[in-house]
UniProtKB/TrEMBL annotation, chain A:
Domain YCII-related: 1-114
Name of the molecule in the record: Uncharacterized conserved protein
SUPFAM superfamilies to which the protein is assigned, alphabetical: Dimeric alpha+beta barrel (SSF54909)
Recorded family membership: Belongs to the YciI family.
UniProt cross-references to InterPro entries, sorted A to Z: Dimeric_a/b-barrel, YCII
UniProtKB/TrEMBL annotation, chain B:
InterPro entries on file: DUF6596, RNA_pol_sigma-70_dom, RNA_pol_sigma70_r2, RNA_pol_sigma70_r4_t2, RNA_pol_sigma_r2, RNA_pol_sigma_r3/r4-like, WH-like_DNA-bd_sf
Alphabetical GO biological process terms: DNA-templated transcription initiation
Limits of the DUF6596 domain: 183-282
Gene3D superfamilies assigned: 1.10.1740.10, Winged helix-like DNA-binding domain superfamily/Winged helix DNA-binding domain
Domain annotation RNA polymerase sigma-70 region: ranges: 12-79
Record-given protein name: RNA polymerase sigma-70 factor, ECF subfamily
Coiled coil spans: none
SUPFAM superfamilies: Sigma2 domain of RNA polymerase sigma factors, Sigma3 and sigma4 domains of RNA polymerase sigma factors
RNA polymerase sigma factor 70 region 4 type domain residues: 114-165
Organism: Bauldia litoralis
GO molecular function terms noted in the UniProt entry: DNA binding; sigma factor activity
Length: 118, 414
């Protein structure tokens, strides 16, 4: 089964870190992606730019309207994702627990919904 | 012989993965590390076996591959986890002076796993979830589906149970002789709960529930193999003899069919024969225990070609023994019903009325249903109606409710 691991953390906390610490986090995160790849769990992963770079799009009365900022304004914002392949939810939870950034925020694990073929 | 088909590796996974996991937990000292190692070992097998051919002993190969992959991974993890290199070194040192795994140690590992999953310091529902996932290899999602609950609920039970095993340092061991009986009783209770969950009639989900009963029977067989004992034999016999009637106990429309009305040609004679053999062995080897006695009662029914041929005297005698070793209001109720069959409805009715007067069965729908049935047979229509209505008010499962409604509608006018 496929699961999406959504990484939430406080961007301000990350901004306050030294360049050296940031580099370590980036290196560890990339290393974990490679670890998942080696073990056959990795499908895709990306980090996101900060929530202040977000634009939220809606269709209102048939017209596209946009607002600055993320859809949900929270202290811990969506900062990245990893799409994994796992045998079941408990294995997905275990793999999510190994994500280095999980130590600085939270990881939401969501099973992928297979849309039935019409 | 360089061609090993993926289906062959899958078959080995189904046959060996639980045994390999049980051994890896002992060698690596924890569930998480062992589960990762199991995964890695089969990854390695999928890569190597098609190229190099099937190893002479795939199980030993997998254990060894899992162990060395775990050591590698702990070393790579050193930067995040200060104790990882130390653990890696210890596992490596133990690996170099370990004896090869014998069939006996492998069997003991499976017992260790079962006893750890059913450790008394884990809550009952966690014991069941953990056993089904670790010992039977069911996915979290499959367990949730079978228990009609959501996967995150089951997942949390498993996560918490594993944390508890780690934090309380629950040993990965088969209990010693002094506590074996007590601990075995907990394991058997968990297996029987899994069976009953799968056996209790519930419309719509009958298929997945039958799977649960099959898992419980598989666990019972494993336990009889690993730990032959009157109690484990008794439980397996009870499950087989109950399950033998599965096809006959619901009509094609999903309605409940009582034992007396079942089409006995649809009973599974193979399960009845196996159950009967086990009952005989269990009752011969030791003082009668509750599972073996309940199985013996089921075997008496299994022996009767028609409901009228049932040896009710034998059934009452077995209930007398059961009431002696495991007294409970439900056993007393079943004994009263058997006495009604042997001596007539009036004899049973006075016993049931006495039980209901005690109060403990006042909210048990089957006590009122049994009373209603005896009143009906005695021609006491008003009393029968009142008791069926009481039973209906208390019954929760749809097929049982429909059955009671049918009985009510069939009562003659007063």
């Amino acid at each position: 089964m496929k699961y999406l691991c959504l990484l939430y953390f406080d961007g301000k906390q990350l901004d306050a870190m030294s360049a050296e610490d940031k580099k370590t986090i980036d290196r560890d995160s990339l290393a974990y992606d490679r670890e998942l790849e080696r073990r056959g769990h990795f499908i895709a992963a990306q980090a996101l730019q900060g929530p202040d770079s977000a634009v939220t799009v809606r269709i209102e009365g048939g017209k596209v309207s946009t607002t600055d900022g993320p859809y949900a304004e929270t202290k811990e914002a969506l900062g990245g994702f990893i799409l994994i392949e796992a045998d079941d939810l408990n294995q997905a939870i275990q793999l999510a627990g190994g994500i280095p950034l999980a130590r600085r925020g939270a990881v939401e694990v969501r099973p992928i919904y297979d849309v039935p073929q019409p | 012989m360089g061609d090993v088909a993926p289906t062959e590796i899958e078959a080995i996974y189904r046959a060996e993965s639980r045994r390999v996991l049980a051994t890896l937990i002992r060698l690596l000292g924890g569930f998480e590390l062992a589960e990762e190692a199991l995964h890695d070992a089969f990854m390695a097998a999928a890569e190597r076996w098609p190229r190099d051919g099937l190893p002479a002993n795939p199980r030993a190969w997998l254990v060894s591959a899992g162990r060395f992959r775990a050591i590698d991974r702990l070393r790579r993890r050193a930067r995040f986890d200060a104790v990882a290199p130390e653990l890696a070194a210890r596992i490596e040192a133990e690996a170099s002076d370990a004896m090869p795994e014998t069939d006996q140690t492998i069997a003991d590992d499976q017992l260790r796993l079962i006893f750890t999953c059913c450790h008394p310091s884990l809550p009952g529902d966690a014991q069941i979830a953990l056993t089904l996932r670790e010992v039977c290899g069911l996915t979290t999602e499959a367990i949730a589906h079978a228990f009609l609950t959501r996967p995150p609920t089951i997942a949390q039970r498993i996560v918490r149970a594993k944390a508890r095993i780690r934090e309380a340092r629950i040993p990965y061991a088969v209990p010693g002789p002094d506590e074996l009986a007590e601990r075995l009783a907990i394991v058997l209770k968990a297996i029987y709960l899994v069976f009953n969950e799968g056996y209790s009639a519930s419309s719509g989900t009958t298929l997945t529930r039958a799977d649960l009963s099959a898992e419980a029977i598989r666990l019972g067989r494993l336990l009889v193999d690993l730990l032959p004992d009157a109690e484990t034999e008794g439980l397996l016999a009870l499950m087989l003899l109950s399950d033998s009637r599965r096809a006959a106990r619901t009509s094609p429309e999903g309605e409940l069919v009582l034992l007396a009305d079942q089409d006995r040609s649809r009973w599974n004679q193979g399960q009845i024969a196996e159950g009967r053999r086990l009952v005989v062995a269990a009752l011969a080897s030791r003082r009668a225990d509750p599972y073996a006695l309940q199985a013996a009662i089921a075997a008496v029914h299994g022996d009767a070609p028609t409901a009228e041929d049932t040896d009710w005297g034998e059934v009452v005698g077995l209930y007398d023994l059961l009431a002696d070793v495991a007294p409970s209001p439900v056993v007393a109720l079943n004994r009263a019903v058997a006495i009604a069959k042997r001596d007539g409805p009036a004899a049973g009715l006075s016993l049931i009325d006495a039980l209901l007067a005690d109060g403990e069965l006042a909210d048990y729908h089957l006590a009122h249903a049994a009373r209603a049935d005896l009143c009906r047979r005695l021609g006491q229509v008003a009393a029968a109606r009142a008791s069926y209505q009481r039973a209906l008010a208390l019954a929760r499962q749809e097929p049982e409710r429909r059955f009671l409604e049918r009985r009510l509608s069939e009562l003659p006018p007063e």
